[in-house]
Predict the structure.
Amino acid sequence: MASQEQEVLGFGPEFDGSSEQSGNRLEGLYASGMELFLEGKFAEAAEIFNKALQLNRNHLGSINFLGKSLYHLGNYNRALEQFQLFLRKEPDNEETLWYCGMVCLQLSRFTEAERCHRKVVSLNPKSARGYIGLGQVVYRKGLYTDAVGMFTRADELENNNPEILFQLGEAYNKIDEINKAITCFETVLKKQQDNPKVYYNLGILYDKKSMPEKASLMYRQAKELSSPRQTPGRSATSASDTGEDMFFSRSLTVVNQVSETAKYDNLDKERYEKFREKQLKKKPHKILEDEQALAENAGKMDLTKASLKINEAINIIKEKRK
């Protein structure tokens, strides 16, 4: 039977402790893995935790943090396996339940993700990130009014958190509460003045409110901040380093993902056009028009429409280059 000390160190109940040398080595590996994990060196940490599990496959600490390392590396299927193993022994571990919910969300396993996050908030009703997770799940399921409720509760628990307000703004946009969405993004902008997604989404919202001058200003600012030459030290989490077009629903569905570009891989042109039509409530502008139409409309296009056309043209050119 495992001693209380072994349980605290994360040794599984089947660890017999018969080899003091193996036990010391296991403890050393686990400590090294934890140090690497806390430094953000997730690949190296995963390797160490794997070595620890070769000594004792029931070492709960290594199982748990191997899963967390794999999560941060974007290896969601393997991470889920580790979390499921761990939760069989520790079903009420709030942090691991949250991680498991986020993994399931990334894998589009919404029922399991919702179950995990609901258990988080049942264990800790003041867990803001539990409500954020629930908000993300119901948003992905298309239940935007429910998402507003979840993000609002998270905002009550962590007032003026820009991550929460960004997602709340997107949910408000989905239910056409444009003024409330604008309020959310304007508050975020005060805290994240180098985030081009905030400017771009505000541009879309100002467009919907028929405020072309403010919309154009937002689009221009978003474009300037998206350029790597303008912000060489900017983190990849604040914008797409590829310079791709940014619009509603991309950013929310990838919260906590490692890769900022992987989320675009399956977004084809047809989905893009349908989205653009829905968001702007009008058919997408044609990028290439015949000469007669161009001549007839010369000098009549406002700055907002011009900005939208430029963004779409850039995206088409990038797709052809690929």
Summary: Residues 20-38 form the longest helix (19 residues). The chain has a mean pLDDT of 78. The chain is about 65% helix and 0% strand. The two ends are 60 Å apart (CA to CA).
